[in-house]
């Protein structure tokens, strides 16, 4: 069985930090699943809609290196059906995803399984030397 890694994020424009995050996440398994929240859930989380539509965000992730599958997350904030449906062995979180980490830890106290939760390093842009 392939070791599944799951990531969560809005991915509203796939920048170098996202790409580094996805690469590091994939290094923890063989199959990377990226979960995108629906636009309404983004609005609840960030008090604004994403700039890109769910279809645009989905397509950008689908084409991204290291991502094997893209799925739309639960329509209800705090619902974790996506976890039960896919049962990843690892959940990779961004260094700034403390809130979701706390929510996941509470959720896994109530169920009979628990994946590893790993926090990825912050992205550090390497400056090229100038000559």
Structural class: alpha/beta
Proportion of residues in β-strands: 15-25%
- Give the H and E element order: EHEHHEHEHE
What is the CATH topology descriptor? Rossmann fold
| CATH class call | Alpha Beta
Uncertain stretches of 5 or more adjacent residues? 127-131
Task: Kindly state the percentage of residues in helix.
Answer: 25-40%
Q: Any idea what the radius of gyration is?
A: 15 Å
Mean pLDDT: 93
Q: Report the end-to-end length measured between terminal Cα atoms.
A: 49 Å
Number of domains: 1
Strands across the major sheet, in which order? 3-2-1-4-5
Annotation, overall tally of beta strands: 5
Continuous helix count = 5
How would a crystallographer describe the biggest sheet?
5 strands, parallel
| Inertia-based shape | globular
In CATH terms, what is the architecture? 3-Layer(aba) Sandwich
CATH superfamily: HUPs
Chart the SSEs and their pairings.
Layout (H helix, E strand, L loop, with lengths): L3 E5 L7 H11 L4 E6 L2 H8 L7 H10 L5 E4 L8 H6 L3 E4 L4 H12 L6 E4 L12
Annotation keywords:
131 residues; alpha/beta; Rossmann fold; five-stranded parallel β-sheet; disordered C terminus
How would you portray this structure in words?
The protein is an alpha/beta fold and 131 residues long. Helix 5 links the parallel strand 4 (90-93) and strand 5. A 5-stranded parallel beta sheet has the order 3-2-1-4-5, sandwiched between helices. The protein has 5 helices and 5 strands. The model is unreliable at 127-131 (pLDDT under 50). The radius of gyration is 15 Å and the shape is globular. It has one domain: HUPs (Rossmann fold). It has helices at residues 16-26, 39-46, 54-63, 81-86, 98-109; strands spanning 4-8, 31-36, 69-72, 90-93, 116-119.
